[in-house]
Design a protein that fits this description.
By secondary structure, the protein is of the alpha/beta class. The protein has one domain: Rossmann fold. It has 8 helices and 7 strands; from the N terminus they run βαβαβαβαβαβαααβ. Helix 6 packs across helix 7.
Length: 267
């Protein structure tokens, strides 16, 4: 004989992950950054969008404001410390503080053998992917130290920061460095209430990736075959993981690099 079914109570719907949060997103004009702007806004965040392509930022900001989000934007190159400082200060001037940041800006480059790469390729990748994260961390932490509740920072790394990718040495080196900066900052500022984590996306749909696949159609099939889920990620899937790490629901998570790769790094 079955026991009587307990009385059901309605489930309380949680509010958005980022309601009340002030968030800076770099590299916000396209790809994962633009997807993050839409996801974070939908989760209730007020946003500072930053990237090098100002016209695209203006269009995205207008779109999000039309949906009720509070958004400002600024043209910024993460490799330039003064640009980063200006973006961080814009958050404080506009909203009173900075709670979270998604340091997404980065570049890749075509694959090529190391001995065939020009020094300028290495310099360009390291300036954006490593110095850019360094600049962002320093200025974001500078203002978050004034927050009673600290803050949360998410750096965008790559599966290339967890294992080797053939013929992409500068990119792999840069993303390993991002993981190192993430762990170092997390350890240094944990007692100040500032959490620092990283997402490591697998191959993700973007303008650059679509163009790369069009020029190298065999690579798309190879990557899908090497990924247990058998597909390429949508930019929104990376943004959702970053939103959770930025939120208070990840309050005891710091210093980690989270693969968002369809199982690629498990193989």
């Amino acid at each position: 004989m079955f026991a009587p079914v307990a009385e059901c109570h309605p489930v309380t719907i949680k509010q958005g992950l980022l309601v009340g949060k002030i968030v800076l997103i770099t590299g916000a004009s396209s790809g994962i950054g633009a997807a993050a702007a839409r996801v974070f806004a939908a989760e209730g965040a007020s946003l500072v969008l930053a990237a090098r392509r100002e016209e695209r930022l203006a269009d995205l900001a207008s779109e999000l404001r039309g949906k009720g989000a509070q958004v400002v934007y600024t043209k910024m190159d993460v490799a330039l410390p003064d640009d980063v400082a200006r973006a961080v200060d814009l958050a404080v001037e506009t909203f009173g503080r900075l709670d979270s940041a998604f340091n997404n800006a980065g570049i890749g480059g075509d694959q090529n053998a190391m001995h065939l790469m020009d020094d300028s390729v290495y310099d360009s990748i390291m300036d954006t992917n490593v110095r850019g994260v360094w600049n962002c961390l320093r200025h974001e932490i500078r203002v978050m130290l004034n927050n009673p509740d600290g803050g949360s920072i998410v750096n965008n790394s790559s599966v290339g920061g967890l294992q080797s990718i053939p013929a992409a040495a500068p990119y792999v080196a840069s993303k390993h460095a991002v993981a190192g900066l993430t762990k170092a900052a997390a350890a240094e500022y944990a007692r100040h209430g500032i959490r620092v984590n990283s997402v490591a996306p697998g191959t993700t749909r973007s303008e650059n990736i679509n163009d790369w696949f069009e020029r190298n159609p065999e690579l798309e099939a190879q990557l899908h075959a090497a990924t247990p889920q058998g597909r390429t990620a949508r930019a929104e899937e990376i943004a959702e993981a970053a939103a959770w790490l930025c939120s208070d629901r990840a309050s005891f998570v710091t210093g980690v690099v989270v693969p968002v790769d369809g199982g690629f790094t498990t193989v």
